Amino acid sequence: KEDAAVKNGVKCLLRLKIIDLCSHYAGQDTIPPYGLENILTVYMAYTDCGDGDPSVGHMVEQLKKKCVCSR
Distance between CA 51 and CA 31 in Å, rounded? Predict the structure, then answer.
């Protein structure tokens, strides 16, 4: 039971960090490569914890399109 609580807590913190990073870059025209790398690193850890929130995945996909490295 305790392990599940820790896993859920970590997953929640990762989700919050993704949302925070996405909100930070949402108002900008582009995202620097290091910004996208940070988002993707946290997102991979989040999805590795199990089923993720589809809306978080959508935010990450939208920001990928804005990265200066993908143009």
Answer: 26
- Rounded distance between C-alpha atoms, residue 43 and residue 7, angstroms: 15
In angstroms, the CA 37 to CA 2 distance is 31
Asked whether 44 and 7 are in contact (CB, 8 A), the reply is no
Beta pairing partners, 35 = none
Q: What is the 3-state secondary structure (H, E, C) of 3-64?
A: HHHHHHHHHHHHHHHHHHHHHHHHCCCCECHHHHHHHHHHHHHHHHCCCCCHHHHHHHHHHH
As a whole number, mean pLDDT of residues 19-23 equals 94
Q: What are phi and psi of 65, to 5 degrees?
A: -70, -20
pLDDT of residue 70: 46
